[in-house]
Amino acid sequence: AQSVTQPDIHITVSEGASLELRCNYSYGATPYLFWYVQSPGQGLQLLLKYFSGDTLVQGIKGFEAEFKRSQSSFNLRKPSVHWSDAAEYFCAVGAMKTSYDKVIFGPGTSLSVIP
Amino acid sequence: ETGVTQTPRHLVMGMTNKKSLKCEQHLGHNAMYWYKQSAKKPLELMFVYNFKEQTENNSVPSRFSPECPNSSHLFLHLHTLQPEDSALYLCASSQWTSGSSYNEQFFGPGTRLTVL
């Protein structure tokens, strides 16, 4: 069965520091991988996605993620965090079903940013 | 309007009330989804509609009743809810193509529901 784990429930970083959020997935075939961000009271915004090709994926807001098949990981990184990056981050894996495109979400990592 | 919109953004209702949540997508997609996001829990898929037909019901209690009159609109009718149904309800849409490729889902801002 497909699953997504995010080992860190909560992370606190100082503004300007680098950030790495971890994600591991379990999926039998080539995965479709996503990172979403959710600000308080808001819906989900897609940061980036990996479908195929280059394993280093660039996204919006200066984020990037690297797909490592051997480690079943898709970690999210940002070189310098801004206070506005404080939010909940969700890693997800997509799977094609017979009648729709399924998404399995991880439990999320809450990011706090210290000024 | 662009993307996926949801109304209302906030809703407070008593356990005996009947209310409806509305979702509209302006992306020309053919599949629409309802998710429930409770505190400290991963997003839970509730229902999926493909070309207006329900293709997934993830063991959702009958007090939640979805309706999809066309590919652009999705409703979630609520009646005799329980306090534990308080959550953020998210709508999403995607362009499903049979067997060829995966297409991502686009999410609305959600409706924050509080059941008293």
Number-wise, the strands of chain B total 11
Mean pLDDT over the full residue set of chain B = 91
What percentage of residues of chain A falls in helices of 4 or more residues?
Answer: under 10%
Shape of chain B: globular
Multimeric state: heterodimer
Ends distance of chain A:
41 Å
Specify the biggest β-sheet of chain B: 7 strands, mixed
Radius of gyration over C-alpha positions of chain A, nearest whole angstrom: 14 Å
Spell out the helices and strands of chain A N to C: EEEEEEEEEEEE
How helix-rich are the residues of chain B, as a percent range? under 10%
Portion of residues in beta strands of chain A equals over 45%
Biggest interface, and residues per chain?
A-B, 25 and 27 residues
Q: What profile does the largest beta sheet of chain A have?
A: 6 strands, mixed
How much β-strand is present in the residues of chain B? over 45%
Assign an overall shape of chain A: globular
Task: List key phrases describing it.
heterodimer; A: 115 residues; mainly beta; 6-stranded mixed β-sheet; 0% helix; B: 116 residues; 4-stranded antiparallel β-sheet
Protein described:
The complex is a heterodimer of chains A (115) and B (116). Chain A has no helices and twelve strands. The relative contact order of chain A is 0.33. Chain A has strands at 3-5, 10-14, 19-21, 24-26, 32-38, 45-50, 56-58, 64-68, 73-78, 87-96, 101-105, 109-114. Chain A has 115 residues and is mostly beta strands. Chain A is globular, with a radius of gyration of 14 Å. In chain A, 0% of the residues lie in helices and 54% in strands. Chain B is 0% helix and 55% strand. Chain B has no helices and eleven strands. In chain B, strands 2, 4, 5, 6, 9, 10 and 11 form a seven-stranded mixed sheet that branches. Classes of the chains: A mainly beta (115), B mainly beta (116).
Summarize this entry quickly.
The complex is a heterodimer of chains A (about 120) and B (about 120). Chain A has about 120 residues and is mainly beta.
